[in-house]
Amino acid sequence: MPANTDGGVGRRIAYYRSVVRPKMTQQGLADAACVALGTIRKIERGERGVGDDTLRAIADALGVDLVRLRHDRGTAHSQARAGLPALSAAIAAYDCPDDGPVRSVSELRDAVDTAVKWRLGAQYARIVRDLPDLLTELTRAYHMAAEGGRTELAQLLVSAYRCADAAAYKLGAHDLSARLIELMRWATAVAEDPLLTASVAYVRTETFFAARAHAAGLRALRQAIDTAPAPTTAVERAARGALHMRAAVIAGGRAKDVDAAVAHLSDAECLGEQVTEDVYYGTAFGPDSVRIHQVSVAVSLGGDHVSAALGITHEWKPPTSLAAERRSGFYIELARAQLWAGMPDSAFESLKVARRIAPQHTRDHPWVREDAPAPAPRRLGDSDVLRGVVRCNLSTGGSQVPLAGVLVTFP
Asked: 12 is in which domain, residue-wise?
């Protein structure tokens, strides 16, 4: 296999091992990747290249996408976007997939479960790389199955489409995202599962966000709430509660309807108290998720509401058991609140935490914009491996507020 001789590979490995995974020693990485300790040391110092197989083993041991080690941040982002046409091609043939092998339903279920973990971990580059083949195989399996055996395959297709949509939406491919959501709605009709229908209604709100059709989005969510199953079980409460959370975001943060936002958050909080924090039908819901949405809505409303957001964050931080994408989102919202309150240094630190939790989610978040990678001045004791520049914009109270000149530096 070709060797990666770019000295930056070693620096990036060292960064992810020592900063993102601060408890992992060089010996721990060597053991996890089945690579000699001396080899790890030389790679990190840039004294030797690293083959693709070894680099993949190191990436797996670190729990990061291979592309993040092989390329710098800007290139990784470009490569992820470059893979979007393959996703588009895979869904274009949803009703007439090409011939090929098909694994058992059990194996396909495992593959989809893995993709869901990537989505919850905000590993969008990995999704873009690996989902096209899986989507093609799932549609092939669906059309090969007998009429009565398509229900579970339709459910798996919904989950896989949702994973692909997460990457497309975060990477700004809103037209592709909208197509994926329509396919989710098609597959949901086949699955005939009202809870799955509710989860797709939650995701569909992205289409209204992208179109800035906030009133229509709120109307669609209210219809979904009205038609969702009665909240008698934990999963039914979670499905309805997630819809209320989403409605609060679009009512308060987008439509500026404070009363509606408060009402939906109250309903979500009530339902959240009746379930344990978990992932239900692909959506994280529970007391912790509700708190994060309370912060998000308060910050988006701006003004005096920001003090309420900061009050929540002074007393509570999301547990590490929460999905990485959601935890990262909390610290991004915290940064927005801190900036509004005139605390740019604290905002900077919160964004660094968000970055450590979910690099791709932070980079591609609507309120976080990055320039082309370039060396940046050291700030607040950043190590030399922190490179590149992310310039953050804050949207609060209907105005655009720059991050007070703060340059957020990441590798």
From this structure: 1-70
